Amino acid sequence: MTTTAFDLPGYRIVASLGVVRGVVVRSRSLIGTFGAGIQTIFGGNISLFTTLAERTRQQAFDTMLVQALMAKADAVIGIRYDATEIMSGATEVLCYGTAVRVVSLPER
Question: Is the distance from CB of 99 to CB of 64 less than 8 angstroms?
């Protein structure tokens, strides 16, 4: 289970296992940059960059989940993303949250 919130409805957090994160550093290819440049001529969504950004975020998220699994977590709460341009054409994407163990609350 994952959430951007700091609790999970229907569950009680019984242990906090610390921060887990996924880091991906991506660069644009010369061909992709050229194709995106052509898309800017026509305006609108630059789908080549959108696809690259979404794949990068997903990879960072998946890497964070692997860390949570290695920590034997049941869930990750407080998930956030951050991105930093490391150099021209290269961006770091970080996905992080708190790995926790939870127990199900009794039905009311």
Answer: no
Give the pLDDT band of residue 8 (cuts 50, 70, 90): very high
For residue 15, give the nearest of 104, 102, 105 by alpha carbon.
Answer: 102
pTM over 0.90: no
User: What's the pLDDT at 85?
Assistant: 86
Q: Is the dihedral of CA 59, 80, 73, 105 positive or negative?
A: negative
Residue ranges of domains in the chain, CATH in brackets: 11-104 (3.30.110.70)
**Residue 28: its pLDDT value, please?**
62
What residues does 81 pair with on adjacent strands?
95
Which backbone phi and psi does 14 adopt, to 5 degrees? -110, -15
Helix/strand/coil for 9: coil
